[in-house]
Design a protein that fits this description.
about 425 residues, mainly alpha, 2 domains, three-stranded antiparallel beta sheet, 14 helices
Length: about 425
């Protein structure tokens, strides 16, 4: 009879021990939660005091009337833009002439469509005259207040961003228009369309997060490549050249990447907040991670504020091992975005040089021989990848203007392997 009583006593002690252990763990968890929350709140309060956003809700802009808001015009165009995109896809994927256009432009980078292909594209564009009027109305707006729902949590907010990226369709629409007009010899109108696309993309910069930032970069590159075709295809008036130079100068903002990272930090803090879904309050790990995220972004801001060639020297000295694995995984994506940003800056500076070289030729009746001949500020001709002047060469077929890109070596203007990056004369295709 004594043996069962010993077992009962043992189970009782075990139960009390387990209860004590649970109580101790809960106490430790409580202490860690309080500590983590206190640490994070101190960092967030410092950011708030400095006027920086700390969550998605903080990114919401002040509303403005729809008539003055480029974002409202973009929203209203969405159905027609989708209809155009569908027509474009049908043309390029299901018609012989459209397939030939795709094959031609894929094979010969920078080439214009044939006269026959341009006529077929024009026939499609003719069905969207109202859409072009809507684009004109959007382009005259001076303000852009995002219409996203900033009360959403991070996953749903990103979903809404992706579904609302109509600016990509605007870029495709104007890209088609510019190609057709260039083939038709309407250089003035083609340049005006390029100016529109640049302006609309600049307005779109008000949208938050890196995903929108990268979309804006893609739209700018689209505009640059089409304007490269236009400026090399025929005369452009002095007034339009001046307007293009003014617009390109507005895009040469080296701090635009920093501004985007400020919104990305707010979004990332909210993303980590959404990870705290456990039924038991063991969220301190993610709270510490949020505090660590603030420190990680502080270092990224220092790097992003510097020209690329300077930031890369510092980047190698950053001790990434002091951060959690998940933050270390974010670094390559941020670095890639930085490369895309400075590649974009370099391309637009190349375009500005091309425009200035054309203006010089129109005025002087001769070719410029160096960048010093051009009426441009020195900083507008610098290569962001090495801090030296962009390469400017007069070829038999036209001007070759480029950046040495990431390897910081002049590879002779080799663009296909992305050894260099810039704007070249259009290929001659029989």
């Amino acid at each position: 009879m004594s043996k069962p009583r010993n077992w009962k006593r043992w189970f009782k002690r075990l139960g009390l021990g387990l209860l004590g252990l649970v109580a101790l763990l809960l106490l430790i968890n409580l202490i860690l939660n309080v500590w983590a929350n206190s640490k994070l709140e101190a960092k967030l309060q410092k950011l708030r005091d400095e006027g920086f956003p700390t969550c998605i809700a903080d990114l919401a802009p002040e509303p403005i009337p729809d008539a003055q808001n480029a974002a409202a015009h973009l929203r209203d165009m969405k159905p027609e833009l989708k209809r155009f995109e569908k027509a474009m896809v049908v043309f390029e994927e299901r018609t012989p002439i459209g397939k030939a256009y795709v094959q031609r432009t894929d094979k010969y980078e920078g080439v214009l469509p044939t006269t026959e292909q341009a006529a077929a594209m024009q026939a499609i564009l003719d069905d969207f005259s109202d859409l072009f009027l809507a684009v004109d109305e959007m382009a005259v707006c001076d303000h852009y207040a995002s219409l996203l729902d900033y009360s959403l949590d991070h996953p749903h907010f990103v979903e809404e961003i992706i579904s609302a990226m109509s600016i990509r369709r605007v870029a495709r629409l104007l890209s088609w228009k510019m190609q057709v007009l260039t083939v038709q010899g309407e250089n003035e109108q083609a340049t005006e369309a390029g100016l529109q696309l640049l302006r609309l993309t600049r307005l779109y910069d008000e949208e938050p997060l890196l995903v929108n930032f990268l979309v804006g970069i893609a739209c700018r590159l689209n505009a640059a490549y089409r304007l490269n075709q236009v400026l090399r295809s025929g005369p452009v008036s002095e007034n339009l050249r001046d307007a293009l130079d003014v617009e390109l100068a507005k895009h040469d903002d080296s701090q635009r990447f920093v501004k985007t990272l400020l919104t990305e930090r707010a979004g990332s803090l909210d993303a980590m907040e959404s990870w705290k879904i456990a039924p038991v309050p063991i969220h301190w790990h993610f709270t510490f991670l949020q505090a660590e995220l603030v420190d990680w972004f502080d270092e990224q801001f220092i790097l992003a504020a510097l020209p690329w060639h300077q930031s890369q020297k510092l980047f190698g000295k950053v001790d990434e091992s002091k951060y959690s694995d998940i933050l270390q995984m974010m670094t390559p994506a941020t670095q890639a975005a930085s490369v895309s940003f400075y590649r974009n800056i370099a391309t637009l500076r190349c375009l500005r040089i091309l425009n200035a070289a054309g203006a010089y030729h129109d005025e002087k009746g001769r070719q410029p021989t160096t960048l010093d001949d051009l009426d441009l500020p020195a900083e507008a001709t610098l290569d962001p990848f090495n801090g030296k002047p962009l390469v400017f060469r007069t070829m038999e077929s036209g001007w070759l203007i480029y950046s040495v890109f990431q390897n910081e070596i002049d590879d002779g203007g080799v663009f296909k392997k992305q050894e260099d990056w810039g704007l070249a004369p259009m290929p001659v295709v029989e």
